[in-house]
Amino acid sequence: MKKRILIIGASGQIGTELTAYLRSKHGSHKVIASDIKEGNQELMESGPFEILDAMDYNAIQDVVIRHEITDVYLMAAMLSATAEKFPMKAWNLNMNSLFHVLNLAKDNKIEKIFWPSSIAVFGPTTPKTNTPQRTIMEPSTVYGISKQTGERWCEYYFNKYGVDVRSIRYPGLISYKTMPGGGTTDYAVDIYHKALKHNKYICFLNAETTLPMMFMDDAIQATVNIMEADESDIHVRNSYNLAGLSFNPEEITASIQKHLPDFSIEYEADFRQEIADSWPQSIDDTEARKDWGWEHKVSLDEMTGIMLKNLKDQY
Ligand code: AKB
């Protein structure tokens, strides 16, 4: 059977870029973008698009059957900061959407699933640096609890029903093409926009808050690589640790100042500080490197150069 892909949550930060990449790789008509809301013009015009509620099992099933979908990328989720404001909504969205696609695969209606997890599965009792693949996991956020629970279900569906579900624990993702929404790592995108617009940024995290981060191109590469890996090479069926960069607001500021020497930052920590403090600072991703050849490419300074160059024209 030929590959036909459905992306749920295609209008979001990762979904937009993932759709563009997969369309260029497999052909536009083979990649169906879907979201509860329309996306940017390029996404809407570059191939098929369906309005789809990730919580509606029948609607997902209808799209899957109509388009003869083989692979689903479930990118719809409520992120950490918003989830603290709407706990039940976050739980319902993050869990129901996952069960829907797991059950479609269990019933042989689709062949393969990508489901993103997050560094948020770790909590305050987890070792903070070089956090291992297997370690103490006591997440203290609504989002982290939903992602950790999701990981357990992914592994369960693989073990009990042979569902081919693959997953990565994304760090904070940084892109000039799309904006994040409702995350704790969002400052690392916003700071580039504000640097160009106002030459100044007021940061909602403290100067020394080091978090795992990654440039979007690396994250898309990881997502595609894990999905293309041989089934026999995937040994972790909850979710793989994935590392790229680790930096704090002070360090990203210094990187920006290499291009904009007058750029300044002030700190006004809000409720997101507590979320960030519960997460690791750096991640050990040995298993992803060993099992399916993961390798990150873009450094902090390279990313800063790319971000400022590409955002310049907007301001
Ligand atoms: C968030 O900040 O909530 C996300 C994540 C780390 O999963 N970017």
UniProtKB/TrEMBL annotation:
Query: Coiled-coil regions in this chain?
Result: none
Superkingdom, natural source: Bacteria
In its UniProt record, which GO terms are filed under biological process?
L-threonine catabolic process
Which InterPro entries does this one have? Epimerase_deHydtase, NAD(P)-bd_dom_sf, NAD(P)_epim/dehydratase
Q: Which Pfam families match?
A: Epimerase (PF01370)
- Span of domain NAD-dependent epimerase/dehydratase: 5-241
Question: Per UniProt, what is one GO molecular function of this protein?
Answer: L-threonine 3-dehydrogenase activity
Q: Which family does it belong to?
A: Belongs to the NAD(P)-dependent epimerase/dehydratase family.
What is the protein name stated in its UniProt record?
Nucleoside-diphosphate-sugar epimerase
